[in-house]
Amino acid sequence: MSSLETSTAASSIGSATSTAAASSSSTPTPASTRDSMLLEFEPYFQRYALLAELKLLDVPECRVPGLFVLPRDNNVYIWDAVMFIRAGLYNQAVLKFELIIPKDFPSVTPRVVFSTRVFHPQIDPASGEMDLRRHFPVWRASDHLWCVFAYIRRCFFKIDVTDAVNEEASRLWQQDKKMFELKIAGYLKDADTNTYANPGKCGIKFQRWDEEQHAAARDVMLQEAAGHSSRHQSFGLSWVRVTEQGEYQSLAEHLSGSKPRGTRPLEDLLRGLGINNDDQGDNDTAATDKTASLL
Q1: What would the DSSP string read from start to end of 4-68?
Q2: Inter-axis angle of helices 167-175 and 177-194, nearest 10
Q3: pLDDT tens digits along 212-247
Q4: Per-residue DSSP letters for 198-247?
Q5: What is this structure's pTM?
Q6: I need a surface site. Which of 85, 226, 251, 292 has the fewest CB within 10 A?
């Protein structure tokens, strides 16, 4: 090749390189593309985060005694809950309440609203809302929803009248504990009557004992408990199941036969974020890691 040809070829290569560089600079950077994908899939990451929070309630170190929780099938941001108090001033109380999770969770503290009327210094007598701000003024990365449930239970064993929202309960606790106890007893009597009323959209409903209808279920549960007393085991379907198409479906949707609402296949989600999905066994790990990065 002559020197002229060599010079011409080098010039062409340089020109092509410059053109390619200019073209690449006009396309979105990988970082901006990734950020836009994160925004698109953020609602799905939040569903993973809420599912992880629900699963924590089954971890022995995070389990709250006497608590039963059921997320609503049509709104994952509202969890119906019932708490059984088996000792102390509120002994035998059956307390129904809602955990209301804000859409921008975990940036904002959740709310707790009791549907059962409760006489307590930290529960607003008009709205039924418990004041969580005194214990969770700012929602931190170390806070979890099980911490809220644990705090609720503690409030019924350790009465604190600091910044009380029920002034009457606060006054009686400090000045007339006997009357405070009588007030609690009156509220609990009304609550026992209303336990079976099942107001609102609460997914946890109670029926009065029917020997013919309920005895067989009780016997099965007692047998299972006796056979697994040395370790904890979950029974039944999870709150969310994965369909054959890789979509996420709530338990209520599965039982009713309806199609999943507002879901995206996990493969599409991971592929859009550039996560290698060749190993199907790593799906949950990859999704969990990505959810943690958003939190």
Answers
A1: HHHHHHHHHHHHHHHHHHHHHHHSPPHHHHHHHHHHHHHHHHHHHHHHHHHHHTTSGGG--TTEE
A2: 130
A3: 888 888 888 888 878 765 444 444 444 555 566 655
A4: --TT-S-------HHHHHHHHHHHHHHHHHTTTS----S--SEEE-TTS-
A5: 0.63
A6: 226
